[in-house]
């Protein structure tokens, strides 16, 4: 029996209840311009028709596995363990690759052996696949920040991540297989395993960013982060506390008088998602013992842990208050908006009344001008008619005179008078000759 050679790239797809989207996601991998790949699908206990959708797709590059629901991090880790490729890519079962995504990433990884992983810009789409815009790396993280007061212009991936998870999703990861051997697999975190892994990866490896959107990230009602925002915040607090315990933040600050200036920049740059107290207490706990990488083993796995429950209750209450405040601000904004609209409408009505009055005035003036013009026209017409009658009378008079003249010219008397005039003319010439 011939043993099939290992593909160059393994694409891991953790699948969970995405019956509506998984076929489009899988075809976006199978239709890549780069063909030497395998598609490792790990169905994490889906209860909808996702499995039937996968089974309808006939492609020898697909390797399909099913397990009980244990979370996305577990499905990813199992897929990585099953993968045979030298490079690992991930695609969540509701997202989509652009056709050239893998080829473009491999071009960087094979050209520069120092680069461990590649990420790209992301196009955000809705449930129907309609574009919601492009997430251009860490650009949004620094909105409203200046280079003087933050790390905006440092262009350091770790600092960019501390300002917010701009890499956004595990679907954005394409890396060398040995990365997992070197830094480990995904942590047991339901909501923020991608953020924790990316911080760990970027702090210990060189990564590259393709400044083109080559991934479509889908927003829809069943996104994991939408189900429990407070629990997600709690996990973020754990991730940040673990990062500050594990990695040498002093390297970010440097030495000398600029240290406190950079500390101020770090204060303005780090986004804690309202988990400051959680981070402080976990740091205190961490300084008292070896807790690096162990927070989620205790607080994420045990959902009845009293510290976790207290934090999530507080975060939920804070979020509820923020929601009320946001609602009040929205209502106030709407009230101000409608008062402004009412004022604009009142002003527009006043302007309309002024315009109507001006129009009426101009109409009256125009009517008067028209009346005068009509009167002048009538006078001119009357004069013209009178002159016409006079001309007609003169023409009739001339015609009568012409008729009389014609009668005279046609009379016998006129003919004798002409003959007499000719005789007189002859007599005058004869007399003239005799006198000469």
How would you describe this protein?
This protein is of the alpha/beta class. The protein is elongated. The protein is built from 14 helices and 9 strands. Helices cover 55% and strands 14% of the residues. Helix 7 (193-204) runs parallel beside helix 8 (229-246), helix 8 (229-246) crosses helix 11 (276-287) and helix 8 crosses helix 13.
List the helices and strands and how they pair.
Layout: E1 9-15, H1 22-30, E2 37-44, H2 50-55, E3 62-67, H3 72-82, E4 87-90, E5 96-97, H4 101-111, E6 115-125, E7 131-135, H5 157-162, E8 174-176, H6 178-183, H7 193-204, E9 206-218, H8 229-246, H9 250-253, H10 258-269, H11 276-287, H12 295-300, H13 306-409, H14 412-435
Note poorly predicted spans.
324-328
Described by strand count, sense and barrel closure, the largest sheet is:
9 strands, mixed
Number of helices: 14
User: Helix coverage percent of residues?
Assistant: 55-70%
Q: Please give the number of β-strands.
A: 9
Mean pLDDT: 87
Radius of gyration: 48 Å
Termini, distance in Å? Answer: 162 Å
Percent of residues in β-strands: 5-15%
C-alpha geometry: elongated
Order of helices and strands: EHEHEHEEHEEHEHHEHHHHHHH
Index terms:
436 residues; alpha/beta; 9-stranded mixed beta sheet; 14% strand; elongated
Describe what is shown at a glance.
By secondary structure, the protein is of the alpha/beta class.
């Amino acid at each position: 029996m011939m043993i099939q050679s290992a593909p160059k790239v393994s694409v891991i797809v953790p699948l969970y209840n995405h019956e509506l989207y998984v076929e489009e996601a899988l075809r976006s991998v199978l239709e890549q311009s780069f063909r030497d790949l395998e598609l490792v699908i790990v169905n994490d206990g889906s209860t909808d028709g996702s499995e039937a959708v996968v089974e309808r797709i006939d492609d020898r590059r697909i390797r399909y596995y099913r397990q009980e629901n244990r979370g996305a991090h577990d499905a990813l880790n199992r897929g990585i363990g099953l993968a045979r490729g030298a490079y690992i890519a991930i695609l969540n079962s509701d997202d989509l690759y652009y056709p050239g995504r893998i080829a473009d990433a491999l071009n960087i990884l094979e050209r520069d052996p120092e680069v461990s992983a590649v990420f790209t810009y992301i196009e955000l789409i809705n449930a129907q696949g309609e574009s919601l815009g492009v997430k251009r790396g860490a650009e949004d993280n620094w909105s409203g920040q200046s280079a003087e007061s933050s790390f905006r212009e440092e262009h350091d991936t770790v600092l960019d991540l501390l300002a917010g998870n701009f890499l956004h999703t595990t679907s954005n990861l394409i890396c060398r297989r040995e990365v997992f051997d070197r830094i480990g697999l995904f942590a047991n975190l339901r909501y923020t395993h991608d953020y924790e892994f990316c911080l760990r990866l970027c702090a210990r490896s060189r990564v590259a960013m393709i400044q083109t959107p080559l991934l479509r990230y889908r927003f829809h009602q069943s996104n994991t982060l939408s189900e429990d925002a407070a629990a997600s915040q709690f996990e973020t607090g754990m991730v940040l506390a673990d990062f500050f315990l594990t990695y040498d933040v002093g390297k970010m600050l440097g030495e000398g008088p600029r240290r406190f200036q950079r500390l101020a920049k770090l204060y303005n740059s780090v986004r804690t998602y309202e988990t400051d107290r959680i981070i402080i207490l976990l740091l205190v706990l961490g300084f008292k013992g070896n807790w690096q990488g162990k927070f989620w083993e205790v607080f994420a796995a045990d959902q009845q842990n009293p510290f976790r429950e207290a934090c999530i209750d507080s975060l939920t209450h804070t979020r509820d208050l923020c929601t009320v405040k946001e609602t009040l601000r929205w209502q106030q904004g709407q009230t101000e908006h409608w008062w402004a609209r009412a004022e604009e409408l009142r002003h527009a009505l006043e302007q309309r009344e002024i315009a109507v009055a001006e129009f009426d005035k101009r109409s009256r003036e125009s009517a008067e001008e028209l009346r005068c013009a009509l009167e002048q026209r009538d006078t001119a017409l009357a004069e013209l008619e009178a002159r016409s009658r006079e001309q007609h009378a003169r023409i009739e008079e001339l015609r009568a005179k012409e008729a009389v003249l014609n009668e005279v010219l046609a009379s016998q008397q006129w003919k004798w008078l002409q003959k007499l005039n000719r005789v007189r003319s002859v007599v005058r010439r004869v007399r003239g000759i005799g006198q000469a």
